[in-house]
Amino acid sequence: MIFNIVSGALIFGYAGWAVFRHIKKSKQGKCAACSLAKNCETKCDSVS
Amino acid sequence: MLLTQLNKGERATIIDLSLVNESVRRRLLDLGISEGSQVCLQCKLPFKGPCMVENCGQSLGIRLQDASYIKVEKKC
Amino acid sequence: MLNIALIGNPNTGKTSLFNNLTGTYQYVGNWSGVTVEKKVGIIKNKKGNLIDLPGVYSLSPLSKDEAVVSNFFVTETFDGMINIVDASQIERNLLLTLQLLEFEKPVIIGLNMTDVAKRRGITINEQLLSEKLGVPVVPVIARSGKGTATINDLLTDDLKVDASFTLKYGPIIEESINQIIHLLPANLSIPKRWTAIQLLEGNAEVRKYIRSLGDGAGIDSIIQATNEQIADETAASNTSKWIYSVRKAFIEELIQSSVVTEESENKSLTDKIDKIATHPFLGIPIFLATMFLMFKLTFDWLGIPLSDILDGFISGSLTTWLTNGLNTAGASDFIKAVVLDGIVAGVGGVLVFVPQIFILFLLISFLEDSGYMARAALVMDRTMEMVGLNGKAFIPMIIGFGCNVPGVMAARTIETPRERMLTILLTPLMSCSARLPVYALFVGAFFAKYQALVVFSLYVLGIVVALTLAKIFSSTILKGEFSMFIVELPPYRMPQGKALLRSTWDKGKGFIKKAGTFIFGGSVLIWLLSYSGPAGFDVPMDDSFLAMIGNVLAPILAPLGFGTWQAGASLITGFLAKEVVVSAMNIIYHVPNADSLQGLLSNEFSALSAFSFMVFVLLYVPCLATVATIRKEAGSVKWTWFSVVYALVIAYVLSLVIYQGGKLLGY
Ligand SMILES: Nc1nc2c(ncn2[C@@H]2O[C@H](COP(=O)(O)OP(=O)(O)OP(=O)(O)O)[C@@H](O)[C@H]2O)c(=O)[nH]1
Ligand SMILES: [Mg+2]
After folding, report:
1. pLDDT digits over C298-326, tens only?
2. DSSP structural state of residue C125
3. Alpha helix (H) residue ranges in C259-393
4. Which residues of C touch A43 (CB under 8 A)?
5. Interface contact flag, C487 B42, Cβ < 8 Å
6. Contact call for residues C338 and C523 (beta carbons, < 8 A)
7. Helices C451-474 and C436-446, interaxial angle, to 10°?
8. Mutual orientation of helices C637-664 and C624-634 as an angle, nearest 10°?
9. pLDDT band at A31 (very low <50, low <70, confident <90, very high)
């Protein structure tokens, strides 16, 4: 029973988070695909 | 004569670029091609397609129309 | 922390050096205009940041990627520059170097491609060059990393500033420079002499910047007057030409003294390959044949066998292990269903196509690194010109085959704004790798014998539709006369195995990552929607929420040959990421592996409606990430909406024509 609750929560929690994050990242467009995105300071906004 | 009148593989010196469109000329200068540069016509693509021109070991593609405004003088 | 900028002509190996010095991987390719955006990385010696910039020939921009660099110079602060100079093309590379030296910041010259120069018989006396220019000159081979350690060592906290370098431009210009310097704001953050020279040369970005600081009328009239004076009193017809000729003369002298070239006029390999690749009549057929071969490899020869093995593993062993594991752990039916029918079906159904996608990426990377891209642009120029574009627009399109997002960004290298906009709008029609699983699934079920051919026809269809629309748009809403095309044709280079694998992995890892994150999440949600309905949980799927959503679209899609709620529902999910279409179908049809799904599909679709479905998936709306990128690159909400709407309309019309036309023909 406990296994069911824990794994259910894990799966759905992770799934919801992953979808949410994907949509958020996609909306940023080009940065999402860049491997430097994390420590890149420019956030790709040098050209408007 | 004009760059486009050269035969394939012929070399020539550019003598006048002033008729060439402003932006195209800027790009040519960027690539180090100005009056006095040595060029070689490498090939022309069919159906009035672009031509390949070599200068100092660097090849570039340029439209036939633009190339026909470039005046050259054949090396003797 | 130091901020060091990497600057140099296009395709000279800046990004290769960047990767070497920072230990990251950024996009490298053998054509001009690979990097179109500023990228910041941390130098391995932890002394500071390295900033990779697009390649430029001079600091006066013509295209959008070049404007990134000019903008960087006037608006950002940095401590020094590494100027990458292509040793085999040193003369024109130095034109930029002179402008950098005038910026009065420390400069290190990285003399790259020394291996190529050596092969061409060019010997450069770097000591002498260093003395004459007053900056360190380090010979490197960025590709292999030779010499990069020396550069690393030079990047210390006390970078030497040697502002002694000045090139005199003759009395007229010098007088004007002095006048302009007096008119510039006293607290200007960039060097005044440099600013004055750039203004005289006609650098639009610098001019814009100076105007933004205050009224530039006085400066404008000096520029004007200088222009006239130069035209009257010298052989040059305007200031920028004069400045160019002064620089050129200086460089010629420099080269006379420090560069020795031995004539070694043997025909290089490049010439031989070029004979074929840009053959007058074979050019385009060769391009098509190359593409077709790519698909043969991707599907028939390598991809399918590999993905069958993977499929066997996922639907066989893996599923058995998971079932046993879940049973032992005492999982409820609900958990078992979400894992087996949701996650394994959805994620597994997409992962199966990893081999195909990696093979395709490997081939694209090979094309990019070999030097063929610029040739393809050359060969296509005539065709592109007829539809109101230029050959360079073809490069973003080829990149778009991998992923539309970098494709749309690559349009920055196109000089004329109108052609750039057209390219941005049309690149999403290129069939990106995310659409590949959809094709793979359907061709496997319906066109087993002609897999490569059918997929190939879809890619070609994408190009044909793009060119047709280019013609229509350029003669209606995006009219304009001016079009230009000049492309640098780099020498062919045999791509190195390691670099090739690296760039393939870099492209492909996104796909695997997506499978673990978004596709996982999407599968769970789609499963949940298919498992629950107004009547509660575990409803028959036809009564689920998912069916309700799909049913809204079904009647609209019916004329196209796939008017089922299943097709409708999976297409909606595809807007977020196109791979999810396959996940959704796997979940909906309740089968954990591609083989049985393909069997089931043949009941729901006919060969004709399957083809119509694939065409629809090819063309209908760009994915969310692409739409966001279009929004940024086009800088207009109106055009962004346009790109979504026109794609939908075209997809609908074309699928309709194909399905109804095919039916009439009796398929
Ligand atoms: N033979 C040789 N090839 C090199 C060397 N350095 C780089 N290359 C190749 O040159 C090509 C261009 O390299 P990039 O690093 O993408 O050049 P870039 O200056 O960043 O180019 P842009 O971003 O387009 O301005 C690639 O194919 C590299 O493999 C070198 O030292 N020797
Ligand atoms: Mg680069």
Report:
1. 777 787 788 888 888 887 888 889 888 88
2. -
3. 269-277, 283-295, 303-313, 319-328, 333-337, 349-351, 354-370, 372-386
4. none
5. no
6. no
7. 130
8. 130
9. low
- Give me the number of domains chain B comprises: 1
> Which H helix or E strand runs over C587?
helix C580-588
CB burial readout C470-501, b (16+ within 10 A) else e? beebbeeebeeeebbbbbbbbbbeebeeebbe
- Give the Cα separation of B27 and C95 in Å (integer): 13
pLDDT digits (tens, 9 = 90+) for C66-93: 888 888 888 888 888 899 999 888 888 9
Between chains, do C486 and B61 touch, taking CB under 8 Å as contact? yes
Inspect the interface and report whether the beta carbons of C38 and A42 lie closer than 8 Å: yes
Residue B14 pairs in a beta bridge with B72
User: pLDDT tens digits, residue range C637-656?
Assistant: 899 999 999 999 999 999 99
Note whether C102 and C163 are within 8 A (CB).
no
Residue C284, number of CB atoms within 10 A of its CB: 16
Of B34, B50, B62, the CB nearest to C248: B34
The mean predicted confidence, pLDDT, of chain C is 85
Residue B58 pLDDT greater than 70, yes or no: yes
pLDDT of residue A40: 47
Mean pLDDT of C536-563: 88
Average pLDDT over residues C17-43: 85
Tell me how far CA of residue A27 lies from CA of C146, C229, C572, C576, C625, in angstroms.
40, 53, 17, 10, 6
* Distances in whole angstroms, Cα of residue C455 to Cα of each of C362, C599, C619: 18, 20, 14
How close, in Å, is residue B26 to chain C by CA atoms? 9
A46–C contact, CB cutoff 8 A: yes
- Is C486 close to B66, i.e. CB distance below 8 A? yes
Q: Any contact of B with C, at least 3 CB pairs below 8 A?
A: yes
The structure's pTM equals 0.84
Q: What is the largest CA-CA distance in chain B?
A: 31
- More confident: C139 or A26: C139
Most confident segment among B26-35, C158-167, C403-412, C650-659: C650-659
**C10 Cα: distance to centroid of ligand 2 (angstroms):** 7
User: Over the stretch C225-262, which tens digit does the pLDDT of each residue have?
Assistant: 888 888 888 777 888 888 888 888 888 888 888 877 77
Nearest CA to ligand 1 atom 2: C113
C596 vs C351 pLDDT, higher one: C351
Terminal alpha carbon distance of chain C: 68
DSSP string, C141-199: BTTTTBTHHHHHHH--SSPPP-TT------HHHHHHHHHHHHHS-TT-SS-HHHHHHHH
Looking up residue B28, the CATH number of its domain turns out to be 2.30.30.90
| pLDDT on residue C644 | 92
Q: Do B50 and C374 touch (CB under 8 A)?
A: no
What pLDDT shows up at residue C272?
66
Distance, in Å, from the CA atom of C144 to the CA atom of C644, rounded to the nearest integer, reads 44
Sign, Cα dihedral of C12, C13, C18, C20: negative
Q: Distance between CA C520 and CA C175 in Å, rounded?
A: 68
- DSSP-derived letter for residue A39 is T
Q: Whose CA is nearest to atom 9 of ligand 1?
A: C13
Residue B50 belongs to what domain range? Answer: 3-74
- Report DSSP letters for C352-371, one per residue: TTHHHHHHHHHHHHHHHHHT
Query: What is the CB-side half-sphere exposure of residue C316 using CA atoms within 13 A?
Result: 8
Q: List all chains that touch chain C, counting a touch as 3 or more CB pairs closer than 8 Å.
A: A, B
Q: Which C positions 471-490 lie with beta carbon below 8 A of chain B?
A: 482, 484-489
| C565 alpha-carbon distance from chain centroid | 36
| Distance from Cα C55 to the centre of ligand 2, integer Å | 7
Chain C interface, mutation test: which of B19, B41, B59, most C Cβ atoms within 10 Å?
Answer: B59
Q: What is the DSSP letter of B2?
A: B
